[in-house]
């Protein structure tokens, strides 16, 4: 028998998507406008003028897609709810057709033995709330908690695990600081406020979940976590890497898990934007009220050197190292850093369950003459990262599941449909689904509960 690496019996084998990236049907069934609908209309904002208007047509094809997931053998699915489908104006009236859609989707998943992990906020803020200040306005955190409470009420009888907010750092930096994502703002001070209100929204929503009293209900943030490598073996580069880690990782992990904002990063921010007077008394307690797991979105590492880069920071991010394999987006592929990251989280936050809520790669593989999609690089990527998770579990990290990003080739934000992250190829004209070789491989792994000890095809 071939040697294999076996995962714990209840390990979740999942994939992940988000509403705006796959659903399409942006005007169907009373859905309100989101900031991404608006941003996609800004000339030049999205490559090729792409939009999420049709995306993968998952709204209409949800039944077919869930059946496909089940046929592969997957046991978990991370989806997001579109806030403007449920509250077209952000608050106030709830849209029953939106509720009915997600009711059906969740029921279908459960009927196929697939456990849903539901994200409440994956970036599609109702435009009506943006018009009232968006995440820079403290009131948005309260409205988010109300929306969350309505979702717990509607779906909490069937959904146990909730990701409140996806990647607050990316929302802050790309959406509010650099203007590359919706809502397209370039406001450094506003980005710090926005990130604070996202965390406050998480805390208020997590408290609302506790208040339901539902046994076993759990809430957590899915963070965009980048392990840091100092560019050189010098004290200055190590200090720079530590400081940048504060900006990217600790600014979020520390307050959510009860340590308050890290002092070193607080000083950086205060030097850059002035007093953080929007952090009210009691906010840090509210942010820390009730996180039950850590959602790890891991794609690549950050190599950091001392010195000045583009921003107001005393560090510089380097482009990577020669000889390290890369995805088609030029992101370095470093599975060992996933092991180190999971172990770091376990050491820093002992006892907190870990979920790899995203991990994946853009590889542009198209159907061949026989119609099949051979994507050996994604198979090797999967094997490498699953082996990395296995090593972390073997060393004691409580990793409960892995959600590959993504199930489908989907709308990759400012890059439109160019990057293909899916286990399933989606034809841009017909929306026809073709399971890639990687999808079959991952499905077989999910069924077996194990990966081969050696990389497939000798790669890895
Ligand atoms: O597509 C995104 C997702 O929406 C958030 N995390 C990273 C993915 C790949 O860039």
Description:
Helix content is 40%, strand content 15%. It has helices at residues 19-22, 35-39, 58-72, 83-86, 96-111, 127-130, 139-155, 168-177, 188-212, 235-256, 263-273, 283-287, 335-348, 376-394, 437-448; strands at 4-6, 12-16, 76-80, 115-121, 161-166, 218-224, 228-230, 293-297, 302-306, 315-318, 354-358, 399-405, 424-426, 433-435, 450-452. The protein has one domain (4-452): Glycosidases (TIM Barrel, Alpha-Beta Barrel). The model has no long low-confidence stretch (mean pLDDT 97). The protein has an eight-stranded parallel beta barrel, surrounded by six helices. Helix 3 packs parallel to helix 5 (96-111), helix 8 runs antiparallel to helix 9 (188-212) and helix 14 (376-394) packs parallel to helix 15 (437-448). The chain starts with a strand and ends in an 8-residue tail after the last strand. The protein is built from 15 helices and 15 strands. The protein is an alpha/beta fold. A hairpin with an 8-residue loop joins strand 9 and strand 10 (315-318). The structure holds 5-hydroxymethyl-3,4-dihydroxypiperidine (IFM).
